[in-house]
Structures are given as structure tokens and as C-alpha cells.
Amino acid sequence: MADLTLTGVCKSFGKLEVIRNVDLQIEDGEFVVFVGPSGCGKSTLLRCISGLEDITGGTLTIGGERMNDVPAAKRGVAMVFQSYALYPHLRVRENMGFGLKVRKVAKPEIERRVDEAARTLKLDSLLDRFPRELSGGQRQRVAIGRAIVGNPEVFLFDEPLSNLDAELRVHMRAEISGLHKRLGNTMIYVTHDQIEAMTLADKIVVLRDGMVEQIGSPRDLYYRPVNTFVAQFIGSPKMNLFDASGLPANILDTARPAPRAARAGLRPEDIRVLPSADGPVTGRVVNNEYTGAGSLLHLDLEGLGQCLAIYSGGDAPDEGAHVSVEFDRSRLYWFDEQERNVAIG
Amino acid sequence: MTRFQSPFVRVCWYLSLAILAVPFVFPFLWMLSGAVKSQTEIFAPTLTLLPETWHWENYAEVFSYQPFARQYFNSLYIACVVTAGTLFISSLAGYALARIRFAGSGLLLLLLISALMMPEEVTIIPNFFLMKWLGLMNTHMPLILLPMFGSQGVMATFLMRQYFTALPPELEEAARMDGLSRFGIFWKVALPLSRPALAAVGIITFLFSWNLFLEPLVFLSDIELFTLPLALSNFTDAYGLPLWHLQMAATSLAVVPILVVYIAAQRQIVESFALSGVKG
Ligand SMILES: Nc1ncnc2c1ncn2[C@@H]1O[C@H](COP(=O)(O)OP(=O)(O)OP(=O)(O)O)[C@@H](O)[C@H]1O
Ligand SMILES: [Mg+2]
């Protein structure tokens, strides 16, 4: 069993508080993704779990055992680093078997486990190469292989795909997902790419300034964000926010749940752009980003300000064109003065 | 760029390089030639690179004039001990200064570096009294201890620290996750990755010890204990004038270990540069 609990976990570097009072429950076999803007403490939280950093407050348990003071190697976790951190002076085979050798596992057993991991990751033909002789994707796989051979209870990934090109990233994403299904281990994965988060996660943890903003399934976060930060962070392109006072009266009358709902959010895919400028909300196209299947329109709306809208179809209005928009009222999110979601309150 | 040079341009390059090399190579050749000439021919009015008569017996005389084999061995074993000891101490100390956070580490580093600015002529007198007090006069210990713990050792420590500081910390973190102890990380990860630095420190230290002149002059009085630089200056006639043919013969023998060390270390450096690169 490898469920994790973090209770009131804090981490500071000197006076700088980086992780503030994080409570988190991770079930056995769950795939959990930490997301958040750069510098919010994702890596630090992961390193606290791995044991590379000591936590300065709260408790961490893995499989029910308190781990605060257990050294990194004895926590039953394995980490895959962003830079892969393969030992340059060792061949792939030795890289993968290194941890086992340190733990004094018998030679034939090391051999067996390395071969098995190599087969799983299609690394068989690369075992006798040095890391410098591998491509980025292959190095990434070796780094994962090195984590697998130790049979850890928990895998930790710190932005493992960020050094790969877009195509390979999609491919490796699928491989990691497949690996999770096959091995069934608990995995914790850090990324700032919210697509990666949405596609991989059973559970997403959104962090901001070292604090947990929201924990939930991708669906949860997308449809029930607790505040504007999560609402804008999850989903791409990001959600538009309007001052409620600028919305047309008919929308306010019918859709606003309560008078305290001061801000309204609407995702770009829920705004319909009409070529004629005679609807209730009008505006001007500031920029038209053609994406192939459609266009991402940057609009300047009368009384509401800048917003993004997705226009599907090839005949999107050009820059400078005057348009009107229709809002999908059922998809409106409402937030109060404190940026909290009114519906969840 | 070099790939597209015409043969003519290339020949010109080699020619000019060869000409430029003359001032560097000539003294060496002159030494080799002087080693097999007679004292009179060295000073003959016509300069010749090849001797008229080859005096190979100069080499035999080098060994009979004074206990040269013994002195050669002295230099060799002292240089080896100093190099090994310096590599051992400087890598450990350099690693500690680079990676272990302890109170006053910054101050300690500053102190060490400031020790580098002290010329050895300044410290030789206090060192002389120190060694005398320790009862190490007319032994090899000063020649071993002073380079290891003096400015040469500090220099080596500083170089190693700089190199360790530049190693990617993630490699060591990976090793920590793999269960290595602090010393294990040093021994199995940091040290193998520092081969270029070790090789460089090795060469510098070996050369330093090999060429040491002032210390042997101050601390040694027994001819049996002399090291090569002192021995070389000892090939003199009854009036104290240098016997050039013997000096050159002896010197040509004295450069051999340097060449060997240099070639060995250089291969290390080239090999490990090929190994470096964490990603990309
Ligand atoms: N060893 C350290 N000493 C001092 N401050 C640190 C240390 N490590 C991280 N920090 C600080 O902690 C904060 C969080 O860093 P962290 O690396 O966890 O961010 P992150 O969420 O992983 O960001 P990114 O997405 O850019 O990787 C940053 O403000 C950083 O400056
Ligand atoms: Mg990070």
C-alpha cells in the first residue's frame, strides 16, 4: 500500500516560506498532478515528498508510516528529474542498475530487473550505450527505466517532458499514462502544462504561492473551479472574466444566481461570434490567430473589455471587423468580490 | 572553415606554424645535442646541432659524478607522493567546500584564497623554523608536507572546488535517491565526473613538486637526499663552474617523467570531455 498523506506540510528556506500548510490525501495507485504557475512551489513540494528536502512543519506519511525524517532512499519512492540526471560516466545498463547495486541486490537479480524494465520501455538495443549517445526521448526513457527497476511504491516526476519537442511530448505522455495503467503504482507528476495535467491526472492539485488552491479531478476543476485563479489556470485558451455590471440586462436578469456575483467567467469556446454588428453585445476584432480548424479571436467588447473567443470554421472575421457576440448563458461561471465561485461558495 | 581549405592554404598554415614553433623547440633540441657533445664542442665557435663526435659516455658520467640514480628516485617518489596526497586532500576538501553547507565555509574559502597571495619566499623562514622544531631537517618530509599543505595544495583545493560546484546537483540528488551516502556520492559520482579536473591538478602538482628548488636547497644538506633540480645545479667543476655537457645530459633525463605524466593526463582530459554533457 502506498497512499500518501500530507498534513499541514510547510517548507521554508530561511525566512522564505515556499510551501504553506499543505493538506493532501493521495490514494494508492492514484495519478496525481501538481500544477501551478512558475515558482509556486511544485518542485519543492515534490522534493519534500521525495526526501531531497526536509519539511519544516507538518507530517508526511507514506503507506501509513511517518516519513518526515526517513532518508530519501528509504521512502520507497523514485524520482525522474527534468534534466534526466543520468550518470554520464555509466552505460545505460549501469545507470539503470545503479540503485540496485547500491542496495546490494544480487547481480543476476539486477540483470533480470534491468532487462525486464528495458523490455517494457523498448530500451533493449540501447543498454550498452552511454547517455551522451542517446536522443532526448531515449534519455527520458532511461530515466524512467532507472526509476522502475527499484520497484518503488511511488513515482515522482518533475516536469519530465519539458525538454522534449511537442510531438515527442505527446508520445511520451501516452507512454507514461500506459505505464501507470500497467504498473498501477502511485504517481505524482509536476508540470506547468495544463494539457498534460488534464490528460494524465486522476487528481489535479492546483498550487499558488505555496498553497493549495483546489484539489479535484480534471472534470471537477474544469466545471467547478473554486475561484478565478483555478478557473483561468485550467482550460486553454484561458477563461474570460467580465465585470458583471457590463453584461447586458437580459443576461443579468436571467442568469445571475445572486447579486453578490460581481464577476462572470466564460470560456472562449462558449462565446459565439456573429459577423454582423447588430447583437446585444458588440465589439471589434483586435487579432485573428488562425489555427487551421478555426481561429482564436481576440476581441475588444463594448463595455466588457478584452476577451478571447474560438471561432470554428474557415471564414472568421478579419482584424478590425465589427462583430457581435452571443454568450452561452448556461456556461457562465459567477464569482464574488473575493474571486470565489458563487456556486460553490 | 578548416574543412574547405585548399591544400596550398593548408601547407602555408603548417609552414608558418612550424616556423613559429622553432623558438620553443630549439632550446630543447640544443639540450639534447649538448648532452652528447664534449664541453669544448658546446662552446666551439661554429654552432652545430649534431655533434662531431658522439659522447654517449656523458650519460654514464652523470651517474658516476654524483648519486644521480638515487636523486632521480628521490624526485620521482616525492613527486608521486605529493601528487597522490594533493589529489586526495584537495578533492575531499574541494568537495566539502563546494557541496556541504557548514558555518563559516565562505570565510574559510576566503582565507584559503588569501593564502595563495603569499609568495613562498615570505613563508620559507617560518617554515624553516617549523620544520626544524619538528626535527624534519635534512629529510624529505618538508618537500612532501609543504606543497601538500602550502599554496600548491590550496590552489588544487580551489580548482577542485570550482569544478565540483559546476557539476549538476541533480546527478548527486539522483545518487542520493539511489541510496548512496555522502561519501558514496563523492566517490562514485562526483569523483569519476571530475577526471578532467583531477588530471589537471595532477599535472600541475607533479610539475610543481618536480621543479621545486628553493625547499630542497633550504632543507637538504645530504647529497644522497638531493632532488633533481638541486642535483642538476650540482654538476660543477672544481671552481664551481657548470659542467654543461653533464647538466644537459642529466636534464634530458629529467624531462622524461614530465612527458609521461603529461601524455597520461592529457588522455584523461580528452576522454572525459567526451563523457561530459548531461543533456542536449
Ligand atoms: N534551495 C532553495 N533555496 C531558496 N529558495 C528556493 C530553493 N528552492 C526553491 N526556492 C524558491 O522556492 C520557490 C518555489 O520554487 P519551486 O522550484 O518549487 O517552483 P516551481 O513551482 O517548481 O517552479 P517551476 O515551474 O518554474 O519549476 C521559488 O520562489 C524559489 O525561488
Ligand atoms: Mg520546478
From TrEMBL, chain A:
- Transmembrane listed as a keyword: no
Q: Which Gene3D superfamilies does this one have?
A: 2.40.50.100, P-loop containing nucleotide triphosphate hydrolases
Domain of life the protein comes from: Bacteria
The record's listing under CDD domains reads:
ABC_MalK_N
Question: Does the UniProt entry include the keyword Nucleotide-binding?
Answer: yes
GO MF annotation list? ABC-type maltose transporter activity; ATP binding; ATP hydrolysis activity
- Listed GO cellular component terms? ATP-binding cassette (ABC) transporter complex, substrate-binding subunit-containing; maltose transport complex
Q: Which residues form the ABC transporter domain?
A: 4-234
Record keywords: ATP-binding, Nucleotide-binding, Sugar transport, Transport
NCBIfam families associated with the record: PRK11650.1 (NF008653)
Family membership, please give it.
Belongs to the ABC transporter superfamily.
| Descriptive protein name | Multiple sugar transport system ATP-binding protein
Species whose genome carries this gene: Tropicimonas sediminicola
From TrEMBL, chain B:
Q: Which Gene3D superfamilies match?
A: MetI-like
Per the record, the major location class is membrane
Where does the record locate the signal sequence feature? Answer: none
Q: Which organism is it from?
A: Tropicimonas sediminicola
Look up keyword Membrane and say if it applies: yes
Q: Which family does it belong to?
A: Belongs to the binding-protein-dependent transport system permease family.
State the protein's name. Carbohydrate ABC transporter membrane protein 2, CUT1 family
Q: Which cellular component terms (GO) are annotated to the entry?
A: plasma membrane
User: Where in this chain does the record put each ABC transmembrane type-1 domain?
Assistant: 72-265
* InterPro entries associated with the record: MetI-like, MetI-like_sf
Q: Which GO terms describe its biological process?
A: transmembrane transport
Compartments in which it is found: Cell membrane
Q: Does the keyword Phosphoprotein apply?
A: no
